[in-house]
Amino acid sequence: MFYTSGGDRLFYTVTGSGQDLVLLHPTPVNHRFWLPVAEVLSERYRVILPDLRGHGQSEAGEGAITMEKLGADVERLMAEEGIGKALFGGCSIGGYTLYEIWRRMPERVQALVFSGSRPQADAEVNRAKRRETIEGVRLRGTGDFIEASLNSLIGPTARRRTPQKVGEAREMMQAMRAEAVIAVQQGLAARPDSVATAKTIRVPCCVIAGGEDGASPPADMRLLAETIRNGGYGAEYHEIPDAGHFAPWEQPEVTGSMLRRFFDSVAG
């Protein structure tokens, strides 16, 4: 299904029935990232799976793909589907978007799951690396970027045990145009620090870390859970030792069971 946000045509799909649950995927993949987990959750929940702008079947639009744009897209999607309040989960850029959703419309959030989405903004060394990535994509296309992403975002255990997943992830990544990759990297480099935002969260939260995740390491995700708790609200923390940045994709059975328990505890 398609809807329009900011003049751009964006894709989403829905599975299951029940309470509304929105899952936001990481870059540079698309909504299919969440399908194995959604199979577990859709037994009780109406799971909404958008392709973030620039990913999958969604248009990128003009300029950088910022967290503000992604948050506005989710708000527009909720209007399209008549959703007043929802449960949310996000991985990587999907989790960064959750911080923006909380800043934008906290009254419409029932619970939040953060996976591989540390609240700190990029350090200068990270921004420099993104500039290098942008230049490389401009000069050579997305091939090198995709192979580097597969090696850095999928943990070594998953690459060894389930090599077919690498092929599936590569297929998703290849659907992303070079212009969209550049726009996302620009948006990620500009994303705001969300540590202060995490302190204001007042809904149940679940924080998931991959033990093999170098982009959002367990120490940073543990700090996120502690920051939410220090703000005065509870937050679960779970670490999946043999998973990388794409933990829900690499370990869908473990993650699906974890999220089902969490969301059931919130939904009652």
Automatic annotation (TrEMBL):
Pfam families noted in UniProt: Abhydrolase_1 (PF00561)
Residues annotated as domain AB hydrolase-1: 21-252
Database matches in Gene3D superfamilies: alpha/beta hydrolase
Keywords: Hydrolase
GO molecular function: hydrolase activity
Protein name, entry field: Alpha/beta fold hydrolase
